[in-house]
Design goal:
With about 200 residues, the chain is mostly beta strands. The chain has no helices and 28 strands.
C-alpha cells in the first residue's frame, strides 16, 4: 500500500521505487546514488541533496515539493522502459546537470516524458549542452511551466522537438535559455507557446 518513509536515506546508496503504490520520502535525504522511479509515484517533500542521476520511467511519477530540493546528476523522464512524469512544486532550487532529456529511447523502444513545473527554481544542463525534449525518433516530450523559474546554466540551451515531436508551454513563471532555444529539429517538429510572464534567451 501507500506509505511514508520518515527516516533519512544517506550514504553511498540510491533509491529505486517500483510497484504501483505511492511513497513519500519526508526527511532530509543525502544519498549519493541514483534516484530511479519505475512504478507508481514517489514524492520528496523535504531537503534532498543527492549527487546521482534522476530517472522516471515505466509509467511512474516523481514529485518534488517542500523547502529545497537538489540533484546534480543528469535527468531522464520517459525512456525506452516506458513513459514518465515529473512534477516540480518545490519552493527551493533543483539542479539537473549533464544532458537532461524529456522523452528518449533506445533502438525501437521509446518513451514519452512530461514535466510540470508550478514553483521553485530549476536549473538545467552544463555549459555546451542542452535540455532536450524528445531526444530520439519516436519519443515525445512536453514541459508545462505555470510558475517558478526554469533556466539553463551559462552556455546551455533548450531544444524542443529534436528528433521526436515536443511541446513547451509557458503560462506563468520565468524561462531563461542561456544558449540557443531551438524549436524543432531536422527530424521532428516542436511547438512552444509563450502565453504569459517572461521568456528570454541570453548570450
Amino acid at each position: 500500500g501507500n506509505g511514508e518513509i520518515s527516516t533519512a536515506v544517506a550514504g553511498g546508496v540510491g533509491v529505486v521505487k517500483t510497484g504501483t503504490n505511492a511513497i513519500t520520502l519526508s526527511r532530509n535525504n543525502t544519498f549519493t546514488g541514483n534516484l530511479i522511479t519505475r512504478g507508481g509515484s514517489l514524492l520528496l517533500t523535504s531537503t534532498n541533496a543527492y549527487a546521482g542521476n534522476t530517472i522516471v520511467t515505466a509509467g511512474a511519477t516523481l514529485g518534488f515539493s517542500g523547502p529545497a530540493t537538489e540533484g546534480t546528476g543528469f535527468l531522464e523522464v520517459g525512456t525506452a522502459q516506458g513513459n514518465g512524469t515529473l512534477n516540480l512544486d518545490a519552493t527551493g532550487t533543483l539542479a539537473f546537470g549533464g544532458t537532461p532529456v524529456i522523452g528518449t529511447g533506445l533502438g525501437s523502444a521509446h518513451g514519452a516524458g512530461a514535466v510540470r513545473q508550478s514553483s521553485g527554481t530549476v536549473n538545467y544542463s552544463v555549459a555546451g549542452q542542452y535540455l532536450t525534449l524528445a531526444n530520439t525518433t519516436g519519443s515525445y516530450g512536453s514541459y508545462e511551466l505555470s510558475g517558478g523559474t526554469m533556466a539553463t546554466v551559462t552556455d546551455a540551451g533548450i531544444r524542443v522537438g529534436w528528433n521526436g515531436p515536443a511541446v513547451l508551454t509557458q503560462t506563468g513563471g520565468s524561462l531563461t535559455s542561456r544558449r540557443w532555444f531551438a524549436i524543432g529539429g531536422a527530424n521532428a517538429k516542436g511547438v512552444a507557446p509563450f502565453l504569459a510572464r517572461t521568456a528570454s534567451t541570453l548570450p
